[in-house]
Amino acid sequence: MDSVDALLLARIQFAANISFHIVFPMISIALTWMLMFFKWRYNRTGEDHWMNAYRLFVKVFALSFALGVVSGITMSFQFGTNWPGFMETVGNIAGPLLAYEVLTAFFLEASFLGIMLFGFKRVSNRVHTLATLLVAVGTTVSAFWILALNSWMHTPAGFEMINGQAHATDWFAIVFNPSFPYRLVHVLLASGLTGAFLVGGLSAYRWQQGDRSKSVMAGIRSGLWLAAVLIPLQIFAGDLHGLNTLEHQPAKVAAMEGLWETRRGAPLVLFALPDEETQTNRFAIEIPKLASLILTHELDGELQGIDAFPDAHPPVAAVFWAFRIMVGVGLLMLAVSWLGLWQLRKNRTPGKWLTRSLVAMTFSGWIAVLSGWYTTEIGRQPWLVSGVMRTAEAVGPASAGTVMTTLIAWLILYAFLLSSYIAVLFYLARTAGEKEGQARGINAHGPRVGPMIEPQGAS
Amino acid sequence: MTELIPDLTTQAGWLPLAFMIVMGLAMLAYVVLDGFDLGIGVLLPLASDDDKDLMIASIGPFWDANETWLVMGIGVLLVAFPMAHGVILSTLYLPVSLMLIGLTLRGVAFDFRVKARADHKAWWNRAFFAGSTMTAIAQGYMLGELILGFELSLFAFFFSTFIGLCLASGYALLGASWLVAKTSGEQQLKAIRWAKRSVALTAIGVGAVSLATPLLSEVIYDKWFNLNNLIVVWPIPLITAVLFVVLWRSLGRLPVRLANDNEYGIWVPFTTTVGLFMLAFHGIAYSLFPWLVIDKLTIWDAAAAPESLLVIFVGAAVVLPVVVAYSIYVYRVFRGKAAALEYY
């Protein structure tokens, strides 16, 4: 019993850590490229407001990056403290991929970050732009390696098992395993959307506060344009990723669709409460044959249900709902970005509904990313590496009590840091207008910051 | 001992050894580089509010890259010695968790203290101090455990905690002597006083580790008190003693020279302290080799498959020199006395 509890707690602890971690790189990957864009616009046009946008969001970036780094270090240790069996079994594959991430990405981004943040007066503008570019490249290369490893855990390839240990036979097949290209594109687009709504949301918040600096509209427009372009691409890429999953991990797709029995002409379940006990959906609202049509492109195509995977299928309800939340947020993003751009046509100013929606959706990228992440990771269970090792086989010997104690400490710390982070982001946005005035020594645009409004909760 | 070492001409022989060296150098780089960052965190409550900003500014551009060496070191343990990684880290579950919470607090306080509302700054300064100190003590505790072969006993707990305090003091010495070189005026004199105060506990810590290792393990005792090795190993404690003397005299003379606007020798305290850390590290490495867990697990027992190690080795051999080169470049960009940090 104790070992079962320790397994569950170790999983909750790792899930808490990785969830806390992933949201920050998702911001910093996209934000470095957006900062490159602001800097490039400034270099091209010489217009101050691009630099002002850069000044605000470089601080947001620095804070996000720091949180990503510290939580990432925690993860590298928790591989060993929580999942010693993982490296003992597949270390020969996972090791080199992680090592290349450290060597080619971590050092690059961490070293040039100093120059990017604090070096503007010490190096030429050209070197500063280069440092910013290298940080952007570093964050993206980091995503490349870690997603190669993660994808390999979903669709392992290019290896053989000798005495219970995985040994590499083909490194190209390992890195470019079947789900990797789809996952990489899907995650990088998700990062772009997360960054777009963060920039749009914080800028819309400045507008709400009465700040009419040109950098505010630059932020709202950049965010909306980026989102409007990326979201259709994301829907297309997500669909391809789904078809890839159907081919390689049909049990996950069965859980996503809430499909208990293998059948032809499977319906698309819009809403249901999947019940693990009875292996049925309660209160289901379905569109007949649509799931078969989407996934097999035939009205009567056969889809495997959960019953095809005895003893090796993921928990259905969690995957089913996580998937729907992700899709729902994605559709919301589509609506807000396209309607928003329509409203702003011919240099119109944003209406109340638009600023409100954007502020409310500042962190919508996080919700989509986390629910998508849960869909794919819970969907892989009970496997840690599909078909190779189960999660339960990797757990460490730490007792349930020890894991519980540290879990509580982590949860308190994360809750505190997350609320501080959100509060500080809105604080930075609120005071950005004043700082722009100070930077020029004059208050060129009249009273931009309305009467100081105290923070209302965290958001 | 020689019977523990396999044929070094085979890949399974030399690759684990090469990775042991890479891991050792990464850990040494981490201890020295993040050591002065952590030391400045330990010293932070002693400074006035303005000086606090300057102290943190002196490490602001570097700390992130410095911390990456820890990821590198633990990464090599993880990827090159997967068997040991699990054993060591599950035994050290609690101190590792404590260190990680400390590193998290320290790392985020860097940014929050200047970006949050001004009236919250004092709290983030406290978090910075608490995080740095927790990290230093936890790392020293783990060093103590490593020396004792991960024994679980009351004695091990007290010994390791004591080493933790000594390491915190050693980091404070590194941090203070970094400030001696990177600041000027009143702050510089204060840093000299802080350095002087940290020397004693650091010296006791070095002494305790040096005495404990041979006394607690017969294998290590034989290595140090074996007539054949005498000439090779005894320079280590001798040079250590000499460096302590040089450091102490330098800290005594610097205030006089600085009063005459003479900055000659301001890097002496930092370089001698780095020398002390390198020698202590070398001594520990000599004692432990070829064990990862004393008397239980050698680097060859714990190594990953040679073909995987070779893939990483090629990458590391190409990339690490580039990493070192651009790290030096970054330090050069920010050379000279520390100045207030500004985004633009």
Write up this protein.
The complex is a heterodimer of chains A (459) and B (344). Chain A has helices at residues 2-45, 48-82, 84-118, 125-154, 171-175, 180-208, 214-248, 250-257, 290-296, 316-343, 352-360, 364-380, 400-440, and strands at residues 159-162, 165-168, 263-264, 268-275, 280-287, 302-303, 383-385, 389-390. With 459 residues, chain A is mainly alpha-helical. Chain A has one domain (2-262, 304-440). In chain A, strands 1-2 form a two-stranded antiparallel ribbon. In chain A, strands 3-6 form a two-stranded antiparallel sheet. In chain A, a hairpin with a 3-residue loop joins β7 and β8 (389-390). In chain A, α2 (48-82) packs parallel to α7 and α2 (48-82) packs antiparallel against α13 (400-440). The two termini of chain A are 42 Å apart. Mean pLDDT of chain A is 84; it is low at 440-459. Chain B has 344 residues and is mainly α. Chain B has one domain (30-304). In chain B, 78% of the residues lie in helices and 1% in strands. Chain B has 14 helices and 2 strands. Chain B has helices spanning 11-43, 49-57, 63-80, 82-91, 93-115, 121-147, 154-182, 185-216, 218-224, 230-233, 235-259, 268-288, 299-302, 306-333, and strands at residues 291-293, 297-298. Chain B has a two-stranded antiparallel sheet with strand order 1-2. In chain B, α1 (11-43) runs antiparallel to α6 and α3 (63-80) packs across α4 (82-91). The radius of gyration of chain B is 21 Å and the shape is globular. The model of chain B has no long low-confidence stretch (mean pLDDT 85). Classes of the chains: A mainly alpha (459), B mainly alpha (344). The interface between A and B is large, with 70 and 63 residues.
